[in-house]
UniProtKB/TrEMBL annotation:
Belongs to the NAPRTase family. Keywords: Glycosyltransferase, Ligase, Phosphoprotein, Pyridine nucleotide biosynthesis, Transferase. It catalyses: 5-phospho-alpha-D-ribose 1-diphosphate + nicotinate + ATP + H2O = nicotinate beta-D-ribonucleotide + ADP + phosphate + diphosphate. Transiently phosphorylated on a His residue during the reaction cycle. Phosphorylation strongly increases the affinity for substrates and increases the rate of nicotinate D-ribonucleotide production. Dephosphorylation regenerates the low-affinity form of the enzyme, leading to product release. GO terms for cellular component: cytosol. Residues 155-351 form the Nicotinate/nicotinamide phosphoribosyltransferase domain. Pathway: Cofactor biosynthesis; NAD(+) biosynthesis; nicotinate D-ribonucleotide from nicotinate: step 1/1. It holds the Pfam family NAPRTase. This is Nicotinate phosphoribosyltransferase.
Length: 490
């Protein structure tokens, strides 16, 4: 894979201003820890498919300020002193990162990435990591929803022309593949990531000839055995399908097969049923029916319920733009400060209890029932805690701690993997096909109740007793200190 390096300037200006203010304050080397996570599930789905790590790794491994970047920053603000630029010249990512492998099924408020490092490096990279992971996870999740409905049908990603620019098309194609699509129409994504590609032809091919039949013949001559003919340019039932059948029969005489037809407008259920019947009656039983036209998981579900005879679905706009939820809303919050030789948890308080951060360096375990192999819940713990699999585990809802359940005979599977240690990558990036397989294995851990696309059952992410106590103590200490300060002022 040959990807261009990503500029260190791919960040928000406030990261640079904070870096400078830390430099002036002589606190730039202070060590901090952050968590990257999201707070609410997109599309009404029951889970998110984690994606974006590979791009994040590539970014972090190559993160440098070039002389040109430095020149630009010099022109940006007259306060920046030359010694700050020396710091940027020697800048390298030196931190520790743990993250979920791509393809993992993840839930709100779980650290998807846990980072430790100097405060300035962790500030600098926040924006890019949220950018990559937020978008790619969103598309992988949308793709997984569509896969859930399509079952074993072929799914083709057609979104590039409607995507929010080039990176979204290319990395979106990769995310869609992770989420379960079979192929992409984007040949760059095919080349860079090794994703299978697929292509039919457009209406312009048909318009380019004096007749539809001539157009179909010419296309089939170029790709005997692979041609998928678009049948809706003029009249699907009266012209497109009969012409495709004529070409299919001509191919048959040469010992070849018309691979498929594509329906791109009209009543896809009605037309596909008619088309299947016409093709079968002509003896073209192997010719597949591809459909496209503003599809998403709901339309596909509906078409299937109408008995549509569609073998392959081409999905563009609504997948690649995450049409019904254009951002995951991932966040990156400081969770701990290293002071006087130890980590001290920090918290961000909000009037909305679900937005109060969970402090400290944490691990996350998937609690899996040993008998049926199904996940019972995820458990966030403090880093130093061990989960003892030989004893019953009490899980409770962090916002409603009186709701408790006891779990026995379980495995506690740690989800965060070491990715960088002191700036060195310690993680071997899996191949895309390994990621896809891992994603499928992940899905098999969950009951269908959590996987259905409409009103899924909530999957629980709980805090260990110790972590919950730490959070309550910190909240208590902060409110006490605010009270004390207000007392002084009164
Ligand atoms: N049987 C069906 N049931 C439910 N939705 C359908 C059915 N057939 C097609 N659709 C969907 O209805 C929408 C029709 O889109 P639209 O009104 O733009 O017309 P079109 O048939 O695509 O024609 P054109 O491309 O010529 O504008 C698409 O989202 C398509 O996927
Ligand atoms: O509907 P989407 O899910 O976004 O899928 C992509 C659409 O892009 C193409 O149409 P377009 O009109 O751009 O080109 P065409 O001339 O090939 O029909 C294709 O025929 C699909 O309808
Ligand atoms: O191959 C196709 O049919 C295709 C590709 C991209 C967009 N629409 C259709």
């Amino acid at each position: 894979m040959n990807l261009p390096p990503i500029s260190a300037l791919h960040t928000d200006k406030y990261q640079i201003t904070m870096m400078y203010a830390h430099f002036k304050n002589k606190t730039h080397h202070h060590r901090r820890a952050f968590d990257l996570y999201f707070r609410s599930l997109p599309f009404g789905n029951g889970y998110v498919v984690f994606a974006g790590l590979e791009r994040a790794v590539h970014y972090l491994e190559n993160l440098r300020f070039t002389e040109e970047d430095i020149e630009y920053l010099r022109s940006m603000n007259e306060h920046f002193e030359p010694e700050f630029f020396d710091l940027l010249r020697s800048f390298r990512f030196t931190g520790n990162i743990h993250a979920m492998p791509e393809g993992t099924i993840v839930f709100p408020d779980e650290p998807l990435v846990r980072l430790e490092g100097t405060v300035i490096e962790l500030q600098l990279i926040e924006t890019a990591l949220l950018n990559f992971i937020g978008y790619q996870s969103l598309i992988a999740t949308k793709a997984a929803r569509i896969r859930h409905i399509a079952k074993d049908d072929m799914l083709l990603e057609f979104g590039t022309r409607r995507a929010q620019e080039m990176d979204a098309a290319v990395w979106g194609a990769r995310a869609a593949y992770i989420g379960g699509f079979d192929a992409t129409s984007n040949t760059l994504a095919g080349n860079v990531f090794g994703i299978p590609t697929s292509g039919t032809h457009s209406h312009s091919w048909v318009q380019d000839f004096d007749s539809e039949l001539e157009a179909f013949r010419a296309y089939a001559a170029a790709f005997p055995d692979q041609a998928v003919l678009l049948v809706d340019t003029y009249d699907t039932l009266k012209s497109g399908i009969p012409h495709a059948i004529q070409v299919g029969l001509e191919l048959k005489q040469q010992g070849k097969t018309l691979a498929g037809i594509r329906l791109d407008s009209g009543d896809l259920a009605y037309l596909s049923k008619k088309a299947r019947k016409m093709l079968d009656e002509a003896g073209l039983t192997e010719t597949k029916i591809v459909a496209s036209s503003d599809l998403d998981e709901f339309t596909i579900l509906n078409l299937k319920s109408q008995g549509a005879k569609i073998d392959a679905w081409g999905v563009g706009t609504k997948l690649i733009t995450a049409y019904d939820r254009p951002a995951l809303g991932a966040v990156y919050k400081m969770v701990s400060r290293y002071e006087n030789g130890e980590w001290k948890p920090t918290i961000k308080i909000s009037s909305n209890p679900s937005k109060v951060t969970t402090p400290g360096l944490k691990n996350i375990y998937r609690i899996v029932d040993r008998k049926n192999g199904k996940a019972r819940g995820d458990l966030l713990t403090l880093l130093e805690e061990q989960v003892d699999e030989s004893k019953p585990l009490v899980l409770f809802h962090p916002l409603q701690p009186f709701r408790r359940k006891k779990v026995k005979h379980f495995r506690a599977i740690p989800l965060l993997q070491p990715i960088f240690k002191n700036g060195e990558r310690v993680y071997e990036l899996p191949s895309l096909d390994e990621i896809r397989r891992y994603h499928q294995q992940q899905l098999s851990l969950f009951w269908e109740e959590h996987l259905r696309i409409l009103n899924p059952e909530e999957y629980h992410v709980d805090l260990s007793e110790n972590l919950w106590q730490t959070k309550q103590q910190l909240l208590h200490d902060i409110y006490e200190s605010i009270k004390a300060e207000n007392g002084h002022h009164d």
